[in-house]
Amino acid sequence: MSQSQQAEEPPRIFGLPIKYVVLCFLVVQNGGAVLLMRAVRALPGESEFATQTAVILQELLKGCTCAVLMLRQHGSLKPAFENRAESLKTAVPALLYLVQNNLQYVAVGYLDAPTYAVTYQTKIFWVAVCSVVLLGKKVERYQWFALFILMAGVCMVQFNRTEAASGSDDTAAQSGARLFGVCIILLAALCSSLAAVSFEKLLKGVKVDLWTRNLQLAFYSLICSIGPLLGEMGPLSEKGFFHGYTKLTFLCIAMNGWGGLLIGVVINYADAILKDIAIGASICLSVLGSVFLFEFQLTAQMILGIVMVSWAVPLYAGRASCGLALVPATSQPPRAALPGQSIGKQYESQDEQELEEQSSMLEGEKASAKSG
Predict the structure, then answer these.
(1) pLDDT tens string 174-195
(2) Of 89, 121, 229, 346, whose CB is crowded by the most CB atoms within 10 A?
(3) Would the CA dihedral through 105, 108, 113, 119 be positive or negative?
């Protein structure tokens, strides 16, 4: 093996390629965060804290971590806010992400973890709708098929939970609570999709590294959270900011706060296919965790719905195939399309967009190093 090949060999942890270690962390984070959020909102003695305080601490943790990483990389925080006009645009998606985070805490109190995890994947559907409406994109035939599979899988899961409730007591109250939770998580998915699409529309063509972007989002999220926090000042001043907090609450905040930054590691060492695998595996993890922790009853219909949703994710992104519409498998996320072009060349989420941008930046750095 030549020296150049040895130099390009990816690093290993415990003898394993780092991309597989990253995959495991991503699965644990995605699945574990859902289970933890369910635990802190459903278990006795774990639901008394104000959700707004948890969201604020998540953003504060993420912001402080990004600030440290920016100081290490740039030696200053100035790049994040030196162009005030551009950085101010981040306030729009930051507000949407703030609303999304609050809605997620509310929804998980009414839904079991598998139903929550599966239903939240409707954000792919909302991204398609928002991209068509706001960016003038069009959806390919295979993507319409993927969206159909996605929504059919979600409906199957919802119908399964409704059937389970019909055989128990207090059906009307349980059905009403479940319907409310579904509406809330659908709204959270819509906010997430609007934030991702508006972020692309507002900052299109602006090269911003991952840590700078996350610091901007965290900063404006904290600014936007002042209003809702003032509305909670009465109870908070009486009971305290950390009233109702337990060890699980702090663990949940840490997992959600640092979870978004895990994408930065995925960008450097993994690829989009592994990200798709992680989504499906994390849903399976949330199901298994619910079976053991919350006595969740798994049915064949539920399993089929989960499989459909897990398959629809890579199919929509162009990394899977089906008999009706063949899709070329790719290992890299597609580049952004111009208005009027196919949404198949469009990012399905903010994470996908960051993955592409960072990959391009890394390739540029490698080229500069070789030329030097």
Answers:
(1) 778 888 999 999 999 999 889 8
(2) 346
(3) negative
